[in-house]
Amino acid sequence: MSVWDDVVGQEAVISVLCGAAAAARGLAEQREARAGSGVEAPPSATGSGSAMTHAWLITGPPGSGRSNAALAFAAALQCTGPVPGCGQCKPCRDVMSGAHPDVVRLATEKLIITLDEVKELIGEAQRRPWTGRWRVILVEDADRMAERTTNVLLKSIEEPPPQTVWLLCTPSADDVLPTIRSRCRLITLRIPPAGAVADLLVRRDGADPALAARAARASQSHIGLARHLATDPDAWERRRRLLHAPVSLRSVGDAVLAAADLVESAESEAQTRTAERDAAERADLMRALGLEGEGRVPPALRAQIRALEEDQKRRAKRARTDVLDRAMIDLLSFYRDVLAAQMGSDVERVNIDLAEQIDRAAASTGPEQSLARIAAIEECRGRLRSNAAPLLAVEALMIQLRPQAR
Ligand SMILES: [Zn+2]
């Protein structure tokens, strides 16, 4: 067992990161030796050409395991075992469980990373490591940052303290400003093979092997989606209903209803996902404020409760956006299959369980229509991400997906 076990199908990336972690260990040992001998350290311990560097941009398509890879790298940097990333030593285990004091992780569940959050991270980045050899600052979704925020971050990435390492994760290198990109070493994850994703679901989540294989294929190797399909019994039914909708819509009225249905089910799924945690956080805060069991909140403390509620509202919105985005990926996979059928291509279908609907859709339309629908889904995804009203965006999409005479 090592920290790389869950980074599936990414052998090339793992070998680069392992090399960097080994180089980092060498640098840290040199530094410790110098500190012991009283000789001053050179200004940069990680010059160009070294396998190790201070800023990394870890990219890969959604679901390919970017943050898993970043976390495993953080563990390998802190590892004290025989091989960096052993998975057995205390630092490795602490990093993987989120308990290591020198790995600061910003995993935003909101749509935007705020300037205050970035300033706090920069403060964290300035500290010396408490117990580890490196201070690692891991930012998931580094693309969710306004330009002004990014510019503040840039300064810290340019001249970090010698023991600080920044790990930024984004879907692609184009998702951050060129100024950030040019200061980071780029790591690109590929879409993992479906077989590797299925193996992970069986090993890590205890999924049934046949179900795991089906889930990996239906999710097109998106690890999070595959896990969802393999572990949530309602997920297949929701997916079937979703993919059935576009071929069964008869009128604009149907399209509007289907849109409402989709947005509503996204809301309720997001709510189930966040409700429990919201309640626990509120209880924690009430306890911290000494208000446990009290019905009324004194006016002086209301601002803190309100701040928590605002945070939770933003998180609920992000959860809803994620659920809708997953629906969009499912729809894309459906029209990809339709298009493949129309082109007479023999690529393996994603939706093996929907052969009849796919064949029907393929026979009743042409490839140009399928391409237009794929473009419409991409456009809807973009609008959902840019904060458009979900119902309006999905309605517009459903109207475009409605079967039309050729
Ligand atoms: Zn270790």
UniProtKB/TrEMBL annotation:
Span of domain AAA+ ATPase: 52-192
Highest taxon listed in the record's lineage: Bacteria
Pfam families according to UniProt: DNA_pol3_delta2
Gene Ontology terms describing biological process: DNA-templated DNA replication
Record protein name field: DNA polymerase III subunit delta
